[in-house]
Amino acid sequence: MKTTGYKAARSAIAAAAIALGAFALPANAQTTQSVEQFYKGRQIDLIIYTANNSAYDLYGRLLIAHMGRFIPGNPTFVPKNMVGAGGLTASRYLYTVAPKDGSVIGTVGRGLAFDPILGRNELGLDFLKFNWIGSMNRESTVALAWNEPRVKVKTFEDLQKMELLVPGTGAGADSELIPVALNFLAGTKFKIVKGYKNTGSAAMAVEGGELEGIAYWSWSALRSSHMHWITDNKIHMLFHTGDRVHPEIPQVRLIRDLVTEPTKKAALDFILAREILGRPFLAPPDVPADRVKALRDAFDATLKDKEFLIDAERRRVEINLVTGAEVDKILKTSAAAPKAVIDAVKEALGQ
Predict the structure, then answer these.
(1) Are 190 and 204 members of one domain?
(2) What residues have CB less than 8 Å from 22, skipping those under 6 apart?
(3) Average pLDDT over every residue of 195-214
(4) pTM here?
(5) Total domain count for the chain?
(6) What are the phi and psi torsion angles at 80 (to 5°)?
(7) Measured on CA atoms in the order 336, 342, 345, 351, is the torsion positive or negative?
(8) CB of 74 within 8 A of CB of 67?
(9) Same domain, 180 and 291
């Protein structure tokens, strides 16, 4: 991101703080209330870094429709969308402005926590200091080629020999970063055609013959919006990016298994670690430990709850619990990656 984006983020953060009417409490303002006493009759703000009806918004609103039942005191939740600077506005607000008492949580882009490890951190955020509550989904994205004679690529091995025209949906977007990284690390030949608004418009371009496939589309989004592509045999799924065999598509190969050179494999694992954080939720730094535990326990219980899972299925939302402890471990492992791996990641991403 350019420096101007960070300056814009700072201005937006200040405005957002005023609009929300939330200001940080000093450390000595914390009380000795029990968790139940604190949350009884209280409202918890959920800060969502994307606009209404986005995937992150959908996950967030689903969560808070149920999570209050599992927190002592049964607080209510209010969603508040805070869009700006690719998620930095919301992240900075949660880090520096939001009350650090457990009354505000947020959901931010899964890739943001890795930027400081790669040296991109003008706003000075230390994502390891956030209290990670967990993730609602362990994302897997798929690479696919359209199943028509005009498209020659049918397999991963074909993709190492022939170009596949795929969409880019914005500078810095995963749809452009990940294919470039895969070309470097896995020897693929994705050719990115830029200028598409989103994956939905790109899907129309694939159907219309402008593109030949899509390099990076979450399985949960594909299954919810274009399941007919699969049932009607309209695509070849070349690989997926998950860290384990996906139970719904066990026949699709893992790209992590197709890269064998040790440093490149470690770099690929670093880049794709963000997907294990698929739909992450966090609380500001310095929230009292008992309230963090209550939020984590409630999050875990919610994602295992029968009523919640029925609601998720009705909304066609994929759920795979990643605990807050797992998120902590992933980020700490990534932060401790050897210099050779970080250098390979930067080269793969064109930095």
Answers:
(1) yes
(2) 45, 97, 98, 99, 104
(3) 93
(4) 0.82
(5) 2
(6) -135, 110
(7) positive
(8) no
(9) no
